[in-house]
Design a protein that fits this description.
The complex is a heterodimer. Chain A is mostly helical. Chain A has helices at residues 2-31, 36-40, 49-59, 65-77, 91-126, 131-145, 148-162, 180-217, 221-228, 233-255, 257-271, 276-285, 289-317; strands at residues 83-84, 89-90. Helix content of chain A is 76%, strand content 1%. The chains are: A mainly alpha, B mainly alpha. Chain B: It comes from Billgrantia pellis.
């Protein structure tokens, strides 16, 4: 019952945040230099006066601001994100078509970075003051400081151009006509480079978090008790320290979701991965502002959904926390 | 132990400081060594590094000198990193100070506002802001500042909350100092060290953000930046990997140096914490 109430509360909060983002979008359109109709047309229709007149009428741009805002908000409430004049399709359809690819990429990268990050971080925590522990942390710092898009490009040069091990572009081999298992394998092969490069940056973050969190947990009284009982250091490390150190990592992993979206925009751009990140890059190049704002709204919604999920996982993992905070 | 001695105890921080000074040197020397615009075509395009004397990093797709671009780009990266961090501090410090000092409803309201900005995916917001304001140094600085102030506000708020009931603050209140004076003269100076540490890390993040924006084609069209160089060379990566390679190394070194310096500052400003950590 408690969970049901909690979920309702979080959903209400999510609706408020999404509403504020819609208003932010509206303000951005208003702030943009030039004619809002031209912006919504993505500058494509700027030459066509008749088309602009239709747009003004449809969005009521000749009406007072609050009427415009009402129309904009109620449109989005009914999932009408407008029309992409560049692509000749409704914005919603474009985004929905690209969403699965992004979920596959970010999901894989998330699991990969979390698993490897926790592994590397706990290794580093067990080897404090040893060269091998310092080496792990130095590598983590370097990956943290490296621009993601550059790692992606260098991965293309090394693994795709020189070694010719993995495909660098797209999600599947065009024209190969794979089906069933062959298709799955084909997509998996295309997924390796984008998912790994996206994961590297986040792996660095989780490594640092895990190490810090484990070092903190190792100061606790129950660890001293376990040591006094004569348990093997390995067992203490795994059962007493790591398990307790994981909780803050879940919270922080949830907070990283927004960063993951940003990373996806860059990796998808480099690897021509057909997700919403690549769509955002295309919208940028074509100055398709309507599509751009639609993707912005959707990426924020994704992050909120992810935050709610991590929040629930956290509460399941740690029954000490009750109710809404 | 003096401040610098504590800083120098951290080897990594010294290395970082050294790299940072070298990059600042590059930025300062750029107009002297390469007085002409880095946009000018000076040789035939696609020269490999060392192929022609005087062009040791080669030329790009338009025959522009890569070395000149790198040096001029250093200036742009550092400038945007510093200015956008300053603007983010100007937003975040007052908000955090007011929220932490007054508490209650003011705090609630301001923290909801901060939370809202933290929920929005920050790189996506920066892209939308720059695209709509049109790419320029000013819009890039504003966009980076707008997406990076929330951690400042949270940090300053936490510091203010823990300091506002200290005895020296109560004493200042007793002698009748105004809220403004107490915030500015009594509490704020005591929160400076964590703010300085955070700021040095924020400059690093800002440089990464700027390079990512320029990479996507959202850089100021009038200034040469590292991110732009990588973005422009992206499509010819198969023929000329070095065009993307060198600017990337420059970004990596700068961001790494700033992170190392930040850790060193943390050790030097909070000696007690540093001992506990190692």
């Amino acid at each position: 019952m408690l969970y049901a109430r909690l979920i309702v509360m979080r959903l209400l909060k999510a609706v408020v945040v999404l509403f504020l983002i819609v208003i932010l979008n509206f303000v951005l359109i208003q702030l943009a230099p030039g004619d809002p109709a031209a912006i919504m047309a993505g500058e494509a229709g700027a030459t066509d006066e008749e088309f602009l007149r239709q747009l003004r009428e449809r969005f009521g741009l000749d009406q007072p601001l609050y009427v415009q805002l009402w129309r904009y908000v109620s449109g989005i409430a009914m999932l009408d994100f407008g029309w992409s004049y560049r692509q000749g399709m409704p914005v919603l359809d474009l985004i929905l078509a690209r969403l699965p690819a992004t979920l596959l990429l970010t999901g894989t990268a998330f699991v990969l970075s979390l698993a490897l990050g926790i592994l590397a971080g706990s290794m580093a925590a067990a080897r404090v003051k040893k060269p091998s522990g310092s080496l792990i942390m130095a590598l983590a710092l370097i990956f943290y400081a490296t621009p993601l898009f550059w790692v992606a490009l260098m991965a293309v040069v090394l693994f795709s151009v020189y070694l010719d091990w993995l495909p660098a572009y797209g999600m599947y081999t065009v024209g190969a006509g794979h089906t069933g298992l062959a298709l799955v394998l084909d997509i998996a092969k295309h997924l390796v480079l984008p998912a790994t490069t996206l994961a590297l940056f986040f792996m660095a973050i989780y490594t640092r978090m895990t190490r810090a969190s484990m070092l903190e947990a190792s100061q606790q009284d129950y660890v001293k008790t376990a040591r006094a009982k004569g348990l093997a250091p390995r067992v203490i490390q795994r059962r007493h320290i790591l398990r307790n150190a994981l909780l803050p990592i879940i919270t922080l992993a949830g907070l990283q979701a927004g960063q993951m979206v940003g990373g996806a925009i860059l990796t998808e751009t480099v690897f021509a991965w057909p997700g919403i990140g690549r769509l955002m890059f295309e919208a940028l190049q074509q100055r398709d502002y309507n599509l751009l704002l639609g993707i912005f709204f959707f990426s924020a919604a994704l992050v909120i959904v992810f935050n709610i999920i991590t929040d629930l996982v956290y509460r399941l993992a740690d029954p000490r926390i009750k109710g809404a905070s | 132990m003096s401040f610098f001695a504590r800083f120098a105890q951290n080897r990594g921080a010294l290395v970082g400081l050294f790299i940072l000074i070298a990059i600042i040197g590059m930025a300062l020397l750029a107009p002297l060594l390469y007085p002409e615009s880095p946009w000018r075509m000076v040789q035939r395009p696609f020269l490999a590094p060392m192929e022609v004397e005087g062009f040791w990093l080669g030329t790009d797709t338009m025959g522009r000198d890569v070395a000149a671009g790198l040096m001029h780009g250093a200036w742009v990266s550092l400038l945007i990193g510093l200015v956008s961090t300053t603007v983010a501090l100007l937003i975040g410090v007052p908000l955090g100070a007011v929220a932490g000092y007054y508490g209650g409803l003011v705090d609630d309201g301001l923290m909801r506002f901060t939370e809202f900005f933290q929920t929005i995916p920050n790189f996506a917001l920066a892209i939308v802001l720059v695209a709509i304001m049109q790419p320029s140094v000013v819009s890039i600085v504003l966009a980076i500042a707008i997406v990076s102030w929330p951690p400042v506000a949270r940090l300053v708020r936490a510091e203010f909350m823990s300091l506002r009931h200290r005895e020296y603050v109560e004493a200042a209140r007793l002698v009748g100092q105004t809220h403004g004076t107490i915030i500015l003269r009594q509490i704020l100076p005591n929160t400076l060290s964590p703010i300085i540490v955070l700021a040095s890390l924020m400059v690093a993040t800002a440089i990464l953000l700027e390079s990512a924006l320029s990479f996507l084609g959202l850089g100021d069209p009038n200034v040469m930046s590292w991110g732009y160089m990588i973005g422009a060379a992206r499509t010819v990566i198969r023929q000329a990997w070095w065009l993307s390679f060198f600017p990337g190394v420059a970004i990596l070194l700068t961001v790494l140096a700033l992170n190392l310096v930040g850790e060193g500052l943390d050790d030097a400003l909070n000696p007690k914490l540093a001992r506990e950590r190692s």
